[in-house]
Design a protein that fits this description.
The complex is a heterodimer of chains A (323) and B (76). Chain A has 323 residues and is mostly helical. Chain A has 17 helices and no strands. Helices cover 75% and strands 0% of the residues of chain A. The model of chain A has no long low-confidence stretch (mean pLDDT 86). With 76 residues, chain B is α+β, with helices and mostly antiparallel strands. The chains are: A mainly alpha (323), B alpha+beta (76). The interface between A and B is medium-sized, with 29 and 24 residues.
Chain lengths: 323, 76
């Protein structure tokens, strides 16, 4: 029974049933597209609201201030692993990148460790996870999380080895931070926090989702398979590169367009290409780079973008090879 | 009473600011509400995630948009 509910088979069958009742044949092209659109929209919106609520509630037990305290005590390679893992669970919006960066550096957390956090945190976010879960299933969503952590650990570690501290703006080292107060939240405040996150995330992404699912539905019914797999299939060496590059100027809300990838993958486009696109929309965003420019010099922004970008492309190729 | 809303100018910071204004009128209180956007001042409060609410020098809320009702309670 539970499996039936969570596989959304009820929704699949229900949509088919209703469409058949009103005279739409879901077996043919047009009906198939309509079915795809309705089914996917409802499924992802339900999943997104539910999961963002649950994940946000769990995240309310963590805070940037607490994460900083933990990382201050760690050193070496394991600090990178810890920073990356904490990047998953710490509630953090990229609009706070600058205060977080200054706070970490001021607390004596090494630059590379700070970047391990800053790389993984946006990649592994609740919305990306849920959209992948809804479109491709648990296994792919899991691979995505693991890749995000590996990317953060290695990317941050490379920045550490290259000793790029001199590319941090000097004033950052002079800032003295006040003592942080870590407040425990009441249950009601946690629920409020989770609710406002659902509102915020669903409110930002739903339009992109509709467009993404709409285009996905069209591709589903009409796009010629041979053409697509020829140009964007796993064999095309430029597909991943292209997906990564076009993602940079897009806001992370663009991850809502991932259902396009679902439809494309059914037509022979590589899974790795879709993963690379998702990672790049979240990790390599132009607005975040502009924010970070306040605290680090262009050279370090370039290195950060380059290392993360190359990492994402490698992940993309890897997944195209193994899935 | 002196109220400060700390934040680097994101949408959530505006939301918190608006909630503070609403809470003040609900609680029928008068206070000076200041938006603090300068990063050095924000850091001096020990705040790393925006938005944050400071009342009379004490950091009461960090990293989330508090609801009007909650702020009304804090104002008491």
């Amino acid at each position: 029974m539970l499996k039936y509910i969570f596989s959304f088979a009820w929704l699949d069958q229900g949509t088919t049933w209703i469409l058949n009742r009103i005279g739409v044949d879901t077996g043919e092209r047009f009906g198939g597209s309509i079915h795809f659109f309705i089914y996917d929209t409802i499924k992802i919106l339900i999943l997104l609201s539910m999961m963002v609520f649950i994940i946000s509630y769990m995240r309310s037990y963590f805070s940037v201030e607490r994460t900083k305290k933990i990382l201050e005590k760690l050193g070496g390679f394991k600090a990178h692993v810890a920073a990356s893992l904490l990047g998953i669970v710490t509630p953090f919006c990229s609009c706070s990148s600058v205060p977080l960066f200054i706070g970490f550096i001021e607390g004596g957390i090494p630059l590379g460790v700070t970047f391990s956090f800053l790389i993984t945190s946006p990649i592994v976010n609740e919305a990306a996870f849920v959209i992948l879960l809804g479109t491709f299933g648990l296994k792919i969503a899991g691979y995505y999380v693991v890749s995000g952590v590996v990317l953060g650990v290695i990317g941050g570690y490379i920045i550490h080895i290259l000793k790029l501290e001199r590319y941090v703006e000097e004033y950052v080292y002079q800032i003295k931070m006040g003592d942080s107060v870590i407040k425990s939240l009441s249950r009601r405040e946690r629920i409020e926090f989770a609710k406002s996150n659902v509102k915020d995330i669903v409110g930002r992404i739903w339009k992109y989702l509709l467009v993404g699912i709409g285009i996905g539905a069209l591709i589903h019914g009409w796009a010629p398979e041979e053409v697509l797999s020829k140009y964007a299939g796993p064999e095309n060496p430029f597909a991943v590169l292209f997906a990564t590059i076009i993602a940079i100027p897009l806001y992370s809300n663009a991850m809502g367009t991932i259902p396009i990838a679902e439809a494309l993958i059914n037509k022979g486009v590589g899974m790795g290409t879709a993963m690379a696109f998702m990672m790049a929309t979240t990790a390599l965003s132009l607005p975040e780079m502009i924010l970070l420019r306040k605290v680090i010099k262009p050279k370090l922004i370039t290195m950060f973008t380059g290392i993360t970008g190359v990492g994402i492309i490698i992940v993309g190729y890897l997944f195209n090879m193994i899935i | 009473m002196e109220i400060k809303v700390l934040g680097t100018g994101c949408k959530k910071c505006d939301d918190l600011y608006n909630n503070v204004i609403k809470a003040l009128s609900q609680a029928d209180k008068d206070a000076e509400v200041e938006k603090v956007e300068d990063i050095v001042s924000i850091m001096s409060f020990g705040v790393m995630s925006s938005p944050a609410l400071v009342i009379d020098g004490e950091v009461l809320i960090v990293g989330r948009v508090a609801q009007v009702e909650e702020i009304v309670n804090l104002l008491k």
